[in-house]
Every structure is written in structure tokens, then in C-alpha cells.
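I had to read the description of the data format several times before I understood it. For illustration, here is how one protein appears when written out as sequence plus C-alpha cells:
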Amino acid sequence: MSFPRLGALMLTLSASLYAQGPVPALDPAGLSQILTSKQWTVIEFGGPTCVPCVKMQPILGELQQSFGSRAQIRNFYVTQHPKEAQAHRIMVMPTQVVFDPSGKEVTRHIGYWPKDEFLAALAKVGLK
């Protein structure tokens, strides 16, 4: 198999894994709605072909299961909605942004975020 074909295969597999993950993706209307839901919200601003974004999906899924109804964990595809991502000052994928129940950003992280560090940051802002 040639390198370009191997790269294309890996990209396709990454995208399909990302799309099949347990964490739903939002469209712009869903993003606006979730930020007014009066719940803790974690949004990963990323893309379906971004390798660190794909690697984050199992962690995000575990967090969603752990927090249950106490927090909403969602994806937002920067590549599909660049204007809305820009409004949230997203410069790099992935960027995880944590919003408190009032919809105010309380912390953000850029890049792959190991689960233990992620949990510690969430606890620090009050989401336990």
C-alpha cells in the first residue's frame, strides 16, 4: 500500500471513529441552546479528522458517563462551523471549553487533555 493511500485510510478510519463516538456533535443552534441550558457544559471544539480530537473521544465519553445529568459533554466541529468557532476564540484543535451553569466560560485547555488532569481542572472550577 502506498503512503498516500495509507494516509487516506487512516484519515477515513479516524473520521468514522470520531463520528461514532458516544459524545454527540452540536450544530450552531445546538451550541447556543446548550449554553443557556443552566447546566455545566464541556465543549470540545475539534474536527472529525483531527488526530488529538479522535484520541479525546474515549475520555469525553467516560466523562459523560461519570457526570451523567450533572454535565453535558459535547463536540463542536470547527471545520464545519468556522464562524461560530471563531466567535469562541478557537485557534487550535482540539480546544476544550468548560462553561458553568450560567453559560460563562470558566476554563479552557488546548490539545490532548489526559483524563486525570481534565478531572482535576473540572473539580477546581466546581464540577465534581
Remarks:
- Helices lie at 3-19, 28-34, 51-67, 82-87, 115-124.
- Residues 3-124 form a domain with the Glutaredoxin fold (CATH 3.40.30.10).
- The chain is about 45% helix and 20% strand.
